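batch job 7 of whatever, protein = Aldose 1-epimerase
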Amino acid sequence: MLKPENTQLAPDGQPFEQVTLQNAAGATATFMDWGATWLSFTLPLADGSSRELLLGCQSPHDYMNQSAYLGATVGRYANRIACSQFEVEGKPHRVVANQGVHQLHGGPEGFHARRWKILEQTAQKLTFELFSADGDQGYPGNMTAKVHYQLTDDNRLEIRYEATVDKLCPVNLTNHAYFNLDGEGTDARQHKLQLFADRFLPVDSDGIPCADPTPVENTGMNFNAPKTLAKDFLGDRDQQRVKGYDHAYLLNRTCNAGTNPAAHLWSADGKVKMTMFTSAPAVQLYSGNFLGGTPNRSGGEYASYSGVALESEFLPDSPNHATWPQPSCWIKPGQTYKSTTTYQFFAL
Ligand code: BGC
C-alpha cells in the first residue's frame, strides 16, 4: 500500500476535496475539506487582469507541511489558552498543550487538522461540518461545528460559524487567512490598515495576555486612522516582544457584522481594498512575524511579513478572564454558538 506521505493524499489516506465558488463578477473563492481551509480568492481588477489576494501553497498536500495555519478554520478555541488550563464549573480542567505549556489554536490536532464533511454545495455557497468528540484536544463534551462560506456578487466572502455542545465548553472559531492585496511576494507591511478599536490586549513573549485591554491612544498600536503597518513597526515594547503586530484588538462597540466595519486594508499599489465586518468582539492583527519558510504557491517559501491576518475572535485566554468587557465565550447544551465574519474585496 502507498503511504500517504508518498502521495498527494491527506493524512487519513483519502484524497483532498477542493471546491471553487464563482460569482457573476468573475471572482473565485476556493476551499478544501481538510481544515475547512480557504485556499484562494481571486479578484478581477479594473484593467481586466485577475489577482490572487490570499497566501497559499502550491498543492493541498503542502498545507500539511506548514505551521502558519494558512486559511484554516481554527477551533475549538482560536488563539491561546495560558498554561492549557481553565476552570469548568469551579474545577480545574486541562486541554492539550502545543506551544510549550500553552495551547495555541485548539491544540495539536485542532480543527485545522481535520477532515470536514461537505454538507451542502452550490455555485456560491459551501457548508462544512465537523464532529468533535468528548475530550478532543482536552475539551469537555461532544461538539458539532459548522462553517458556511458564501461568495456574493458584490465580492463579499461571508463566513458563518455555528457550534453546539452537550457539555459546557468555551468556543472561539475563526479563519486564519493571510492577505496580501498586492499579490504574492511583497512585504505586506506596506499595506495601509484602519482598525476600529480603541483598545488592544498586551501580551508577553509567548503571546499570553499580561494586562487588561489597554488604550491604543498615543502608541504605535493605534490604527484608528489609516496608516501602513510599516509606519510604527516595532516602535513599541509590545511589538518587540512578539516581533511585530500579533495582538488582539477589542473592537469598538459600533462594529457589527453588517454595516459598520471592523477594519479596512489597502494594497500598497492602491488597486485593491478589503473591508472586514464581524460579529466577534475582537480581531487578532498578525503581521506574519513567523511566516518565514512557509511553502508558497510557486514551490518556494514565503518570507516573514509577506501577509497579514485579521482573525475575528474572542480575546485570547478568555476562559480565564471572565471580567473582560466582551460577551461570554462559553456555550451550554441547548445553546448555539454563532459568529459571522465577512471580508469584502474592492478593485479600485
Ligand atoms: C498567532 C501567532 C502565530 C500564528 C500562526 C496567529 O494567530 O497569534 O502568534 O504565530 O497564528 O500560528
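notes: The first helix runs from residue 237 to 241.
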